[in-house]
What does this fold into?
Amino acid sequence: MTGGRPAAAQAAGRRSRRLPSPRHLALLPLSLLMVVPFVYMLGASVMTRAQLNRFPPPILPPGVDLTGYRELLSDSEFPRWFLNSVIVAGAIVVSQVILCSMAGYAFARLRFVGRRVALVLVIATTLIPFQLTVIPTFLIFHKLHMINTLGALIAPQLASALGVYLMTSFFQNFPPELEEAARMDGCSRWGVFFRVVLPVARPALAALAVITFIYAWNDLFWPMVAITSKENLTVQAGLTTFQGQHRADWPQIMAGTVLTTVPVLIVFLIGQRRFVQALAGAVKG
Amino acid sequence: MSAVVTKKQGRPAAARPGRGGSRRGGPPRRRAAEQAAGWSFAGPSTLLVLGFSLLPMGWAFRLSLTDSDLVTEGQSVGLDNYRALADDPVFWKSIRNTLELIALYIPISLALGLAVALLLNKPIKGIGFYRACFLVPFVASAAAEGLLMAFVFDKDFGVVNGLLTRTGLPAQGFLDDPSQAMLVISGIFIWTQFGFNVVIYLAALQEIPKEVMEAASIDGAGPWRTFRHIVVPSVRPISMFLAVWGLIDCLQFFDLLMTSTKGGPVNSTITIVYYVWQLAFEYFTAGYGAAVAYALFAGSLAAIVIGLVFGRRKGFLL
It folds into this structure.
């Protein structure tokens, strides 16, 4: 499939520029298949209930009707859920960027007893499925009287094995000269880390922030377990209350899925390059 | 204690610029400072990650030996919960469904991921657009995607049945039909996840040295032979990784179900995780739920180990 065509064909710049590659014939339909459902979601969110309860339903919206959004924002608790999600995901991102980069720096750069064991243990925890730990985790927060609080959603995610692993592999490839120079100037470890290392590590921190945000924003299982009253739900857990209940309210439900998806898509599109690099780098490391 | 440590840290230990200084030891005082710095940097994350995994893991095992109802501790029942698994039809159904998902998901998502990565591997116009498209379902939330797909595949008003009837084909039950639901939901799961495989394979393909590919084409190897003898072996470690990763994803399959089928109709899409959730948080049989989770964990760990050993020896996985 690849490598078959001689290099000369590529060098014949002009002709290949005029004729689009035949690979587009496969790529275009496939990539449309990936995004068309989302386009349809957006379209359905601006249709009316009557239009969507007809069979067969229209494929393109006959007009733009914002009733679904209006009802969602005024009649449901969606705005509250959205705020909860912003708080929870924001706190998790800030905490992970600080704690995981500190740990990654230590595991990659500092020599201390138990370093290797601790790192291996942290990475090994990724093999423990969440369904195994979820019941006792619920009980821990129950004992702490934190069930049904946003704190219960934030605390277990303050640091993550993936974040520690990503930052460790990043700092292993980080040039040591810079910090050595700062150390010679008499900076403490903390000074070196916060004033010299972190500013240079900004691309990696951005990648970690993007990945963490996407995971935190999308999380569903734990909020469903830890939150017991409607107003404390996150957007994802809030969406599950729509299933079954508002069966006929598809415009409102689709408006909800649109507003739930938009923040994560914006973050992804802005941080796409870093996101992809971090994913690929993590696997290679 | 910590005051002493900070004082030591403040000392001009760094005045010894010896090359091995930061690497291996150095004078004892310096070493002690590095110990303290190391643990104060790595400690918080390590404690949090291990605290929220190892502690609950041990607790879950203790719980699995009781008849806890989640709120109270419950009585010890020995291995009764594990014995009960054998006669629990829903448990076996959930295992069958999960295995079905794995059998569909891993081969298809790996093959599709590699195929698309190969298409994107040579310079092509719009690569940024394509890569973004393939990743959109991966980054969007499964909860939203589950609702969207429940809507699109709705038996009575869904757009897919709309298209089918417009083209003269019979409407399908999809997620409402027990014989189709697992198949449809597996397809949706592949759609949401395989963009990840594309990105990872693409990075792996770009690591294959150009000279190797050129040498192959000079030696007259056609596309198929290049693929079979150069591409496939070079990405084998990545294929292994993605297979294991996919297996873990399948074993954790939950979010999509929660907003689409909820395990139904008549348990036709119930998976092990979904069953654990139901047992603990809907039926309040936390002890039994923990036993189901442990049985799954032991089984999947064994499967991963066997898969890795077997896959490596036979050179099996792509």
In short: Chain A touches chain B through 115 residues (CB under 8 Å). DSSP finds 17 helices and no strands in chain A. The first helix of chain A runs from residue 7 to 11. The two ends of chain A are 28 Å apart (CA to CA).
